[in-house]
Hints:
The chain is an alpha/beta fold. The protein has helices at 23-33, 59-67, 85-88, 102-107, 123-129, 142-156, 159-172, 202-209, 228-234, 249-256, 263-266, 285-297; strands at residues 40-43, 54-56, 74-77, 92-93, 112-116, 134-137, 183-191, 194-197, 212-214, 223-226, 238-241, 270-272. Helix 3 links the parallel strand 3 and strand 4 (92-93).
Amino acid sequence: MMMACDKAPSTPAEPQEVAQDQGVSQEVATRVAAPKSERVVAHSATIPADPVRVVSLAPNITELMFALGKGDSVVGVTRFCDEPADKIKDIKKVGGFIDPDMEAILSLEPDLVVGMQAGDPKLVQKLEQVTIPYVFMKMDDLDQTLEGIEVLGEVVGARDKATTLSGALKDALRPVDKKPEQARTLFLMGHDPMVAAGHGTFAHDLIERAGGKNVIDANKGSYVTIDMEYVLKSNPDVILDATMTGDKSDSIQSFWQPYSDLAAVKRSQVHHLENPSLLRPGPRLDEAYTIIKTIFGKLK
């Protein structure tokens, strides 16, 4: 949801074997696969050394392509890709993350398809059949995101810019000095169902680095469906609500108003993060981090 507003499968596709006689293309595939193979869940045997027609199947990948100076190579994006708005408005849409339009992809004649964990279990097989090179990455938490940026730079021929961007984000996302009592925080992405960011997510990492403590139990997984009973029992000091709504933050406050016994509601510490796109594992995570740090910094 944070990456593409679509769900990724729990079991990623297996990486393809790397060919041994493909020249430069094979070298790129080899570098992508190792030593960061845990960040690449699937890749074709060969990858072009400097692709010029790239289809992006995730909003964060699209943003990163432009941040790495490779926006001119992007010829196709998903219907969820919305940034940078002024530069992608005329780029052809190729469906969603879990329902990509293969005919639309083929019509663009890409030399590379890049995305997160393959939403369509058969997508890798389809790309193999039509011999279109591909790379699908895993960027669930901050460490994976920073390394994933470098992997993407390797793939699209922007290694130096990717290293610089990753390094800048790493500096900007340094943990703050934690207060003796950490603010117990609930990070929500939706109300119906109520979905919270658990451990192993970059939202969790942002909370912890900013000086808070995630109220979701460590054993519950990454993106967790909870109910109001769980919220009331955990009684967070701060609620960061990134629920997407067509209305303004007033609707978020109205949602929480009946639960006046919650510590976060009592202390007026329910915060609507009005721009959920900042919470993608991409080049603007430092902006999201600044917002969260500012909220924690004002706590008494």
